[in-house]
Amino acid sequence: MSRVAVVVRQHGGVEALKHERLDDVSPGPGEVEVEVSHVALNHLDLWVRRGVPGHDFHLPRIPGSDVAGRVGGRRVVLHPSWGCGSCSRCITGMQDRCSEFRIRGENSDGGCVTRLVVPAWHCLDVPDHLSDAEAAALPLTLLTAWHMLVGRAALRRGERVLVQAGGSGVGVMAIQIARLWGAEVHATASTPERRERVAGLGAVPHAYDDPGLRGQFDVVVECVGQASWRSSVSALAWGGRLVCCGATSGSKVEINLQALFFKQLSLLGSTMGSSGEMEQAWAEVRAGRIRPVVDRVLPMSRIREAHGLLERREVFGKLVLSMDLGVDDVV
Ligand SMILES: [Zn+2]
After folding, report:
1. What is the pTM of this model?
2. Does the residue 281 lie in any domain?
3. I need a labelling partner for 290 at 20 to 30 A (CA). Which of 58, 201, 262, 307 fits?
């Protein structure tokens, strides 16, 4: 039985997302075969499709970092990243700093495929209160936001947190994690409708250009980059920490060093997180203390349209694709 996948062979527009038949794979020792049911879309999928100057994605690549499916009768989601497992950083629990760190769907093939083989430990059990689509909406942004706030910013109870782009995939997770940590959470969003939804997650909503944000926050969560950088830095209180995991609007920014040293600010970079952090964060999901935010579910056959929606920022939380490839159309 062959498999069907979405494959990127050349970077480009949405037409670069091709449906293809692939040879079958079978699990080796310590591995399991996952029948994929849902895959969530991330900004990373846009970078894999478009390409990033100076970065080699080693095409062809099957995209898809967030995968839910079945192993036998068991409902699972997959760890979105892992290290080599044997270097000093991996054995001390810092897989995200391993020189062979892998992210599913970026530098390792992802989940936009009917079946895939993974190491058995990559599987996390899905609790009964979540659907497959909801489970798929979690791993990458959950781990990213967890590592930003818990691992990098070392958030403390009672601190004030500003989440920029509160309606983004990372944003909806960061709001919930910061609240779980006992912080007072504020979030920016672009439209009154999105601000209302951000408020529904428990954050005080603001427009991006709200002058009342200046100097107010112990921690600022930043994934937008260029477009929000100035307001993010100015929102920091004395001794504040800005933690950045992305630059969806562009990566060139200016830093006023006087503000940096006078206000004793910390600028923290963050990417993904360790496998242990993923297990910790997933325990909060299992306990029902972190909830997925699914904007909509589309069939995989409409993945091109899905990319367009994410590019135009028309998604609140996560867009999830169900594993329906329109197999009859595949050549
Ligand atoms: Zn390693």
Report:
1. 0.96
2. no
3. 307
